Amino acid sequence: MIIRVQVPATTANLGPGFDCLGMALELHNVIEMVPTSRGLSIEVSGEGAADIPRDESNLVFQAARSLFRQVGFAMSGLRLRLLNQIPVARGLGSSTAAIVGGVIAANLLTGGKLSIRELINIASSIEGHQDNVVPAVLGGVVVSVQSDGEIKYLKIEPPNGLKGVVAVPDFALITKTSREIIPAQVPFQDAAFNVGRAALLVAALQQGDLGLLGVAMEDRLHQSFRSPLIPGLKKVLAAAKLAGARGVTLSGAGPSVIAFADSNFELIARVMGETFRQNGVKSRVMVLKPSP
Ligand code: HSE
To answer: Sheet holding 257-261: strands in order across?
Structure first.
C-alpha cells in the first residue's frame, strides 16, 4: 500500500491577520508513505533535500508517529518519500506542509479514523499556531482562531484573478527567531489599527474588492519589528505597490515577501527581485495562484 498526499504552501498573516489569516498557494510538497516490516527509511528530493533529516527527527515522521500514538496504531516500519517544492524556512509553510502531510498520510494509513477537524487540531498543536495549518488542510483563504484548545475556522474562496508574486530571499529565517523579536505588548491604538484592517481584509477578499487590499493589508503588530531581520523589506514592500500590486506583505514569519495582484505580475516580480538585490539580498521570484 502506498499513501500519497499533496500539501500546498501557505502564506500566513496576510498583513494584519497575525496568527489568524492564511492562504494556500499552488506550490506543493508530496508525501508518500509506505508501511514496512521494520525500520525507518526516508528519501527526500527537491527543496531542502540536502538538509532535511532522514532519521526520527524528521518532521513528517514525527507528525505521523504522533497520529499513530493517538489512534493506538503499533507501527512496525515506515518508508517515506518526500518530493518538496516549498522552499524551507522562508515563510511559506514548509514545516506546516511536513506536519500536515505526515498527519494526513498517517490517518489514511490507519484507516482514516480521525475527522478533518481532529487532524487540524493535532497538526496545529504540533506546529504551535494554526494559521498555516488550516489553509494547508482546506485550501483557499482561512480565518482561524484558537478557543479553549479547539481551532475554530471558516474558509472563504480567494477572489478570481488574484495571484501572489512571491520574492523568496536566499537566506532562511527560523520562525522562533522571527516571533521572539515581536514585543510582548503593543500600544492600544496599534491593536485597534490591526483589528480594523483584518476585518476589512476578510470582507474585501470575500467580496472581491481588490481596490481595498492596499489599506486592508497594512499592519502594525509584527512587520516593522521583523524588518531588521530582512534587509530591504520596507523598500520591497513599497516597490511592489508602486509596480501595481494591490497589497503586499511579509509572508508568514518571513523572509519571503508576497504581493497580491491581478495584473502586472512580471513587472512586480522584476521590481521585487531587483529591490532585494539592491539591498544585498539574492532572491528568486515566483508567481503563484491561490490553491482553491
Ligand atoms: N503567524 C505566524 C507568524 C506564521 O507570523 O509568526 C509563522 O509561520
So the answer is: 247-250, 257-261, 163-169, 283-288
